[in-house]
Automatic annotation (TrEMBL):
A GO BP annotation: regulation of DNA-templated transcription
Highest taxon of the lineage: Eukaryota
Molecular function, one GO term: DNA binding
Taxon lineage: Eukaryota, Viridiplantae, Streptophyta, Embryophyta, Tracheophyta
Keywords for the protein's UniProt record, in alphabetical order: DNA-binding
Keyword DNA-binding: yes
Official protein name in the record: Basic helix-loop-helix (BHLH) DNA-binding superfamily protein
Organism annotation: Forsythia ovata
InterPro entries: MASH1/Ascl1a-like (IPR015660)
Length: 110
């Protein structure tokens, strides 16, 4: 009940336990020129991360062109495709966004 309450209130934390259907989040980031793909794998208790990552992209000026998720057993697979802003150095922008995303995902584990 406490985990459900935390998830519903969006306290920003996910369980690090793999017992009881809970899974620590993991993120993979792929950059191809001005395109960025993020694959986020979470447990059922971390679904708030999906919308938070979309918000981060928008804050950084990147356009989310496609976002989807699928659930298999107790694991949620989120995929986001984005187009980076029209900057002269997309590599720097990609590195900054990647670092911010990783920091958010891995600091969200309680």
């Amino acid at each position: 009940m406490k985990q459900k309450k935390n998830w519903l209130t969006g306290d920003g934390k996910c369980s690090s336990s793999t017992m009881g259907g809970l899974k620590s989040p993991d993120v993979e980031i792929h950059v191809m020129g001005s395109a960025m793909e993020v694959v986020l794998v979470t447990g059922l208790d971390c679904q708030f991360m999906f919308t938070e990552i979309i918000r981060m992209f928008r804050e950084e000026g990147a356009e989310v062109v496609n976002a989807s998720f699928s659930i298999q057993d107790n694991t949620v697979f989120h995929t986001l495709h984005s187009k980076l802003g029209e900057t002269s150095a997309p590599e720097d922008e990609a590195a900054r966004i990647s670092e911010k995303l990783k920091k958010f995902v891995y600091s969200s584990v309680s």
